[in-house]
């Protein structure tokens, strides 16, 4: 669970980066510049895939954490990672429901 929580944290960080990259690319397209935000395209693609897949991994992590909390078992991940992942979930829901891809 500790390793999984760190993977979810990394994916949530990639989500933040992918949202920023999307904003930067939209700004560049408004200026008729169609180059990527990062010159190294495989890195940008990896960040976007991890970022957009973060919501699914985050749901699994939160369900496991809620289950362990309800059974009054110790959640073996650091508290700050759990809080960060919990705070990221509503932001991800808002982004995927209300943003115009």
Short description, anyone?
The chain is built from 3 helices and no strands.
Give an account of the 3D structure.
- With 101 residues, the protein is mainly alpha-helical.
- It has one domain.
- It has three helices and no strands.
- It has helices spanning 2-30, 41-70, 79-98.
- It is elongated.
Detail the topology: elements first, then pairings.
Layout: H1 2-30, H2 41-70, H3 79-98
Work out the helix count: 3
What's the end-to-end separation, in Å? 33 Å
Shape: elongated
- Classify the oligomer: single chain
Ranges where pLDDT stays below 50 over 5 or more residues in a row are none
Work out the helicity level.
over 70%
* Total discrete domains: 1
Percent of residues in β-strands: under 5%
């Amino acid at each position: 669970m500790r390793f999984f929580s760190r993977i979810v944290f990394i994916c949530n960080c990639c989500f933040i980066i992918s949202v920023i990259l999307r904003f930067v690319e939209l700004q560049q397209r408004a200026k008729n510049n169609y180059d990527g935000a990062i010159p190294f395209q495989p890195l940008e693609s990896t960040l976007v895939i991890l970022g957009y897949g973060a919501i699914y991994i985050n749901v699994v992590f939160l369900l496991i954490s809620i289950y362990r909390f309800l059974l009054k078992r110790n959640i073996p991940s650091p508290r700050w990672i759990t809080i960060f992942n919990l705070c990221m979930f509503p932001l991800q829901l808002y982004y995927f429901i209300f943003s115009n891809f």
